[in-house]
Amino acid sequence: MTRIIAGDARGVLLTVPKNGTRPTSDRVREALFSTLESMNVIDGVEVLDLYAGTGALGFEALSRGAVSAHFVEKAPKVASLIQRHARAVEDAVKPRQVRCTVESRSAVQAVAGLAPGLGLVFIDPPYDVPGAEVAALLAALADKLEPWAIVVLERSSRDPLPELPAAFRLERTKLYGETALHYLELASEEDAAS
């Protein structure tokens, strides 16, 4: 079990499947959300949680003020678990209305069908997903983002940052033991020119 750390749904427990998921630790999630709150990118945003696992990242954002979260998890059993978690989180944050949707398909397929307007995206693929696949996913995601959006990419601290598509720039990287969090944003025209 893991739990939501802060906000309206603080303390809501999330069941962790026995196999196939690697939930972000409480310590890393706490640091991640402290950074996002200092960047002022949670309140009122639409969130996308790719390779969602338990959904902990998207639910933490909803608990702290996001208005919607779209969860993408390829494994159908895990996706149905996220659906159960969504009901518990929606109940916990009432009367604030939030919207949760869950898709059981690949991240690339899901991104292709999304409408623009995302303000915060979590990408936490299994560590063995190749960097080229992550870069292709980022390229597909670029036109779905608000100009000020933040994308948080979680990778092993042993792996280099995948080559970023021209649409993105690295804002910062934070290391926590085996975990690296890369904060990405859309590149400005000045970034593209240099």
Automatic annotation (TrEMBL):
Its EC number is 2.1.1.171. Gene3D superfamilies: Vaccinia Virus protein VP39. The keyword Transferase applies. The keyword Transferase applies. It holds the Pfam family Cons_hypoth95. Keywords: Methyltransferase, Transferase. It comes from the Bacteria. GO terms for molecular function: 16S rRNA (guanine(966)-N(2))-methyltransferase activity. It is an enzyme of class 2 (transferase). NCBIfam families: 16S rRNA (guanine(966)-N(2))-methyltransferase RsmD. This is 16S rRNA (Guanine(966)-N(2))-methyltransferase RsmD. It comes from Pseudoclavibacter albus.
